[in-house]
Amino acid sequence: MDDYKNRSYGEVAIGMRGKVGIVVVDFQLAFTDAQYPLGGAPLNMRAVDNTARLLDVAREHNVPIVQCNTAYKNERHHPHWKITAVRETFREDHPSSALDPKVYDPEYDIVVCKYGPSIFFQTPVVSYFVKEGVETVIITGCNTSGCIRASTIDSFSYGFRTIVPEDCVGDIEEGPHHDNLRDVGRRYADIEKCDNVIDYIKKNM
């Protein structure tokens, strides 16, 4: 028995409509390069590859793309992270803070540096998307249980139709990845596949 379903959670599909914008959350080398403590998780590497495919199509169709990393000036600048690897390596001058070249196009993408979990928190992403006429936001990046979840909730809260392609987001473990997608999918966003988003962009943008 799925009591959430019985109580109507997830019954209404959001759907993609109008102009889309894409956010790419924290595909920095700290998460995508296995030499770093948080880097190289298989789900994240799968997500990088699929996001790269999505972004290639998006750029061809003039879709707004915002990338972010998380980096701090020094220890004092950090919020109260409980993750040692974040405290030690997420610095503006650390090589792991660079965006992964597999997904980042410096000639096209807008870049912001975020200090909290959500790409929308105290950044200009919302005003940029409003200027661009974005109605539907596609959330990609990592980690599903942290910054993806936070960004999804903020996207919903700002009034955007919110879509999370399951194969364009990743996490350290499969359990939290699927649990959080199921949870936000019951409430705030549609959980899709990368290919479905690509098809929408090709047909509508």
Helical amount? 25-40%
Low-confidence stretches: none
**What's the CATH class label?**
Alpha Beta
End-to-end gap: 40 Å
Assign the CATH topology: Rossmann fold
Number of strands: 7
Number of helices: 8
Q: Nearest-angstrom radius of gyration?
A: 16 Å
Give the SSE order as H and E letters: HEHHEHEHEHEEHEH
Please provide a brief summary of the model.
Residues 22-184 form the Isochorismatase-like domain. The protein is of the alpha/beta class and 205 residues long.
What does this structure look like?
By secondary structure, the chain is an alpha/beta fold. The chain has one domain: Rossmann fold (3-Layer(aba) Sandwich). Helix content is 39%, strand content 18%. The chain is built from 8 helices and 7 strands, in the order αβααβαβαβαββαβα. α4 links the parallel β2 (65-70) and β3. The longest helix has 19 residues, at 42-60. The N and C termini lie far apart (40 Å). The model has no long low-confidence stretch (mean pLDDT 97). Residues 22-184 form the Isochorismatase-like domain. Keywords: Hydrolase. GO terms for molecular function: hydrolase activity. This is Isochorismatase family protein.
